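G., the chain you wanted modeled:
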Amino acid sequence: ENACGLFSEAAACDLYYALRLALYPDDRNALAAYLRSPFTGISDEAVVRLLLESDGRRGAGRFDPLGAEASALVPEADRAGLRRGAETIARLAGRIDREPIASTVSYLWFEAGYRAALLRDPVASAFEEHFELVHSMAALADERRACLAAFVAELEPLLGEPDKQEIDLPRDGSAGVRIMTVHKSKGLEFPIVILPQANNVSRE
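Predicted structure as tokens:
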């Protein structure tokens, strides 16, 4: 019923790092995470080559791992993905504080192809709701008229944290099993209710 460790999972983290890289192009951690995400889909070999070249060029002229020069460094099979990733970041940068944050998150999920990449793996379909959670957080930030930098700063402390996110989602479908606390389910009616471990003896 509530997402635990939302930003311990790849989908939410990939969205976060894409937003962060658009804001802070020199952030090496954001760059590495973005290169390894479905936004580019490039191989480990390509990621390592780009990061090593970026390190080697420090202080000796700027190297853009998403620029035209970078394409020659990666295997031919990775070049289309690298170009796609570069276009996504360029479009994302153009949206900063010009488009609502929720719209920007939707762009990453749908138009930039993240959802399509995930749905190639049937197991990854569970991440659909993770997008809804991040989108809801973005919509709340829009209501507060927060800028994108402020939104990204709010998400940063959540990375890797196991705490649940108290965000209510509108749920259109009724299929599947809903796991809820007794307190949250109070007053609701279900045709079948399972109370696990009801034979446990209280320690009080």
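Residues 30 and 40 are 13 Å apart (CA to CA).

Shout if anything looks off.
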